[in-house]
Amino acid sequence: TDRTSKGKTKGQAKSEARTPQKREKMNLQRTSHATPTNVVSVATAKNHLRVDVTDDDTLIETLIGVAYDVVERYTGTFLQEETATVYCDHFTEYMVLPGGVNVRINTTTGDGVGYYDEDGAFQTLASTDYEFDGISIPARLRITDIPDFVDDRLNAVEIDIKAGWNDSGTYKRPAALVQAMLLIVGHLYENRQDVTGYKTHEL
Fold it and tell me: Over the stretch 126-168, which tens digit does the pLDDT of each residue have?
């Protein structure tokens, strides 16, 4: 069997060369903010809470927003389709993108895959310079032609994406996520003060 100078077969060495040794640190910043009541309306929440009056409508709408944020953070997905930009310091051949489900490279309202060059100018990679896998979770990006002159700055690479659950279709929002929101709204509505391990009694 053909071996390299380190005693590994050529196949092993080739495989290791294609495998990323560490994951590039990435930061995601959403660039759109869908309305939480598109997922759980005030009327739906009130029905869940068995509330008939309108006095607490504003509070309930606020709690829907809180529940929306909690479920998104816990699951690492957008409950509705959103746009976002992923930032990292440099390219690696294989990159794992945050964003959860239904991730796509956004070249419609965004710049797709781009970077700042050594002159500080923003450049965009051609779609032929990368391969994208949005079926896997998390999504994967392979840079087939890594630029030679990426600026040595923080967040030099920017990747615009679309991602999130839909109301129907392949990526229809799971009912479990909607129910999770309702449970959180119910808990917060019934416990509007700090929750402690102590019970209080009137004297």
Answer: 999 999 999 999 999 999 999 999 999 999 999 999 999 999 9
Token pair for 116: 């700042």
Segments of the chain assigned E as strands: 27-30, 82-88, 94-97, 104-105, 113-116, 122-124, 130-133, 139-143, 157-163
- DSSP result, 100-150: -SS-EE--SSS--EEEEBTTS-EEE--GGGEEEE-SSSSEEEEESS--S-B
CA–CA separation, 138 and 192 (whole Å): 36
Vertex 198: Cα angle to 193 and 200 (nearest 5): 70
Among 37, 33, 35, 32, CA closest to 64? 37
In Å, how far are 109, 110, 203 from 90, measured between CA atoms?
23, 19, 64
DSSP-based three-state secondary structure for 197: coil
Question: Are 137 and 101 spatial neighbours (Cβ–Cβ below 8 Å)?
Answer: yes
